[in-house]
Structure formats: structure tokens, C-alpha cells
Amino acid sequence: MEKNNTLIKLKEKERELRQVLIIEAAREVFGQKTYDKASMAEIAKAAGISKSSIYTYFNSQEELYAQIAYQDACKFIKELNNRILSAGPDPVRAAIDYFLDFYIENASQWRMVTHFALHGNNEMGAVEQLNKTGRELMDVFEMMFVQAGCTSNTRIMAHTLFACLSGILIAFRNYPGRSEKDRITHMKKIGSRIEGLINIYISNG
């Protein structure tokens, strides 16, 4: 019996390690290519396994993509929450700065966010995970508004802030005819304007 339990644990550990291997290989491929230009064959090659082996762990490329997006979003939300809690009397600036800085520096992760925002996801498990992280992000933004002194409409304000910051990145991250430095400076300026408008809204009650 003890021998059987040991074998079961070893197989479970092997399965976990194989999943991690596939996810990290996929993260590398998706970091270099957009979702529609990447393939399971490339991911399998990067992982050093057969393409069919991937389907033992993930039903589709979209499910694998969603799993990576979910893991990365969880890490992002945790750090965003920490930044806001340690920001003292200026949580709005902390949230806006971190959101923009993070996704400016992590372009592949922003591509994942926009992919699912624009195209959705048909994998039920992935849908539930992504919806969960979306709600958690709104919870953090809502907590930020409360911390900043906002007393009403905190949920809709959380949605508004996310829409504004997403709009900045979509509109100006790859704006043609400008240098990388100019694009970043411009996005941060717009972020500052949004911060100012939010603070006016909060001060007016």
C-alpha cells in the first residue's frame, strides 16, 4: 500500500512538473508572437515534447493561453494591492502609475488582456478563472477609491478607471511616428490627467 501511494505521488508530481514545463514554454512563445501567430507545434518544440502530449494537459491553445493570462493577472493584482495599501494618502496615483508601468514593460501580458477582452474565451474553466481575476481587479480598484475617500459609486468608478487606463494603452502604446520615450511620456501625462479628474470627483463628494 505504501509503495502504491509513493508511485501515485510521484506520478502527480511528474504531471505538475510537465504542466509547468508546458506553461513556461508557452509563455516564451507567446512573449514573442501574438496568439494568432503562435502554434501548439511551436510550444511543443520549445518544451521538448510532442504536440499531442500538450493536449493531455490542456484542451486547446486558447485554454493554455488563458491559464498563463490567469497566473500573470494574479501576480499583477497582488502587487497592485500592495502598492495601493502602502501608498498612504495618494492611492490613486500609486494605482495608475503601477498599472501603466507594468503593462508598458510587459507587452505580452497586455496582449493577453486585450485578446480576451476583444475575443472572449470559449473554454468554460478559463472563463471562470478570467472572470474571477477581473472581479478581483475591480475589488482592488474599489478598495483604492474607498481609501482615497470616495463615498459613493465606487464600483462604477473602478470600472471607469480600468476603461480609462486600458484606453491609454490601446490608443498610444504603439502610436506611430513617436519614439518609445515620447509614447511613454505621453501616456503618463494622460494618466496624471485622469488622476486629477478622479481627485476632483472625490473632493466634490
UniProtKB/TrEMBL annotation:
Keywords: DNA-binding, Transcription, Transcription regulation. PANTHER family: ACREF/ENVCD OPERON REPRESSOR-RELATED, ACREF_ENVCD OPERON REPRESSOR-RELATED. Coiled coil: none annotated. The keyword Plastid does not apply. The keyword DNA-binding applies. GO terms for molecular function: DNA binding. InterPro entries: Homeodomain-like_sf, HTH-type_Tx_Regulator, HTH_TetR. Residues 16-76 form the HTH tetR-type domain. Residues 39-58 bind DNA. It comes from the Bacteria. This is HTH-type transcriptional regulator (TetR family protein).
